[in-house]
User: Fold this.
Amino acid sequence: MSIQDAPSGVALWRQVADGIERGIADGRFAAGEKLPGEIEIAETYRVNRHTVRRALATLAERGLVRAERGSGTYVETGRIAYPLRSRTRFSEIVGAGGREPRGQFIDASEQEATRELARELGLKTGAPLVRIESVRLADRVPICVSTTWLSAERFPDAGKVFANVRSMTKLVAHYGIRDFRRASTRITAGIVDATDATRLDLALGRPVLVVDSTDVDTMGQPLTTKRARFAAERVEFLVENG
Amino acid sequence: MSIQDAPSGVALWRQVADGIERGIADGRFAAGEKLPGEIEIAETYRVNRHTVRRALATLAERGLVRAERGSGTYVETGRIAYPLRSRTRFSEIVGAGGREPRGQFIDASEQEATRELARELGLKTGAPLVRIESVRLADRVPICVSTTWLSAERFPDAGKVFANVRSMTKLVAHYGIRDFRRASTRITAGIVDATDATRLDLALGRPVLVVDSTDVDTMGQPLTTKRARFAAERVEFLVENG
DNA sequence: TCAAGTTGTCTAGTATCATAGACAACTTGA
DNA sequence: TCAAGTTGTCTATGATACTAGACAACTTGA
Assistant:
C-alpha cells in the first residue's frame, strides 16, 4: 500500500496498469518503443516488481504491450490485437483495447445450404439458411466485414433481429442462447475484392485476413458459421500458445 | 467474484460503493430516502452482505449515507457532511463528497495579539500576528469565511503566501510544516453579519455556525488559530463518537 | 406486547493481493 | 566470449478481500 494509504479498493497492480495505459494513450510511450524495465517501473510506483509484472501481464493479454525476454517490454503497434480464443467476442476484444466497438448491418437474405455450409452447421444440404452481411468497426474505423449463416428454421427472422441489435451475441441471446463458444477457426489471406474494399474503406489490392469460423452452444450444437474478412493492416491475431 | 469473473483489480466493495454513489448522484436514490436493505443490495449485486456493509461504511464515512440500526440506511441531505476529526482538511472533506473545493483570499493585515489569541497561540499578549480573511467554496458555492491568526515572527509574509496558494495546508507547508492536527474545536452559532452575508452569498438574518479552532504541529506547538463562520444551511458537522 | 425486519458484531475459512528473495533463460553490446 | 541487464519462474510469507453463519441490538407497525 504505497501509492495511497487509505484502502482505495483498487488493487496496486491495477493502478500501475492504468498508469502505464495512460502513458501509452497520451503518447508518453510511443508505439514500438521500449517501456522502462520492470525494476524501474517498480521503483517509480514504489511497488514490488511482481506487482509490476502482474500489471504488464494484463496489458500484454489485452495486446497493448509485448514482453521480450532478455530485452524488454515494448508498446505494441497500432494494430488491434485480436486474441483467438474459444470465447471470442469482437466487442469485448475491441473494448478491452480501449476502443469503441460498433456493428453495422449491411443486408440479409435467404439461401439454401451448400454442402460445406450444411456440414459446418450440422444440417442437410439445401436446408434454408439466413445469410447476414455486416461490418464491424473500432472507433469508427472498419475492421472486418462478415458473412454469417444461420439456420432459418432455428432463427426465424434473424436478419431483422440483427439489423436491430447489430451484434451476434445479442442476436443469439434474442433466441434464448446465453453463451456460445468458437468451435473452429481457419485463417487464410487474400486480396480484398471490390465490394469489401468499399465496405472496409480499403484500397484495391490490399491484403485481407480471411477467417472461417463456427460457433457452437454450450452443448456443442452449431449455431452460426461465418466468413470474416479483416483489413490486414488494422489487426493482428494472437494465438494462445497454451 | 460475482460481478465479473476475470479479476478486475477493483475490489467488490468498491464496485458496490461506486454503484450506490452513482445511484445517489443521478437521483435514483433521493436525499433523505431509505436505501434498500443490506440483504437486498447484496442480492442485487450478488455479493455477501458483509461486502455491502463495507461499501456502505465507506459511503457513511464520506457523509453520503447514514445508517440507523434497526431502521435502515438513508441518503444524507444535500448539506455537506463535515466530519470533525483531529485531522481536518477542508479540501479533503469536500473532495471526498465529490465536490470541487476552492479557497479564496480576501485580505490580510497585521495586528497585536489579544490576551485570548495569545493564549491560544502560546504567545505573549501584544505579540505581532498576521490576520488572514478567506472564503472556502465547494462547487463554487461559498461554505465558510474564516479569520485566521498566525505568529508574524514564525510566519513572515504569511498573507502574501496565502494569497498565492489559497490553502492553509499549503501555507504552512511553505514554512516547512508537513503535518498538523486540530488541537481544539469549539462550535457555537449566531446570525450572519453584513460583511459575512455578502461573502457567503447569504441573506441577512440567516444562521451561521461559528467554529473556533486551533491547529498544532506534530510536537503540539500551536500554529494557527481561527474563527470560521459556516453557512448553517449548507453544512452539517459530524462528530466522531469514538 | 410481539413479530418481522433492520443494522451491528463476532468467529471462521478460502482466495487474492502484495512483498521478498533467488535463480534461470535470454539479449545486447563491449 | 563475457558481463551487464532484461524478462521468466519458483517458493514463501503476511495482509487484505470475500464469503458464510450466527446472534445481538434496535425500530417499526400490527
Summary: Helices of chain B lie at 12-25, 38-45, 49-61, 90-96, 115-121, 158-165, 168-174, 194-200. DSSP finds eight helices and ten strands in chain B. Residues 1, 11-13, 47-51, 54, 68-72 of chain B lie near DNA strand D (CB under 10 Å from a C1').
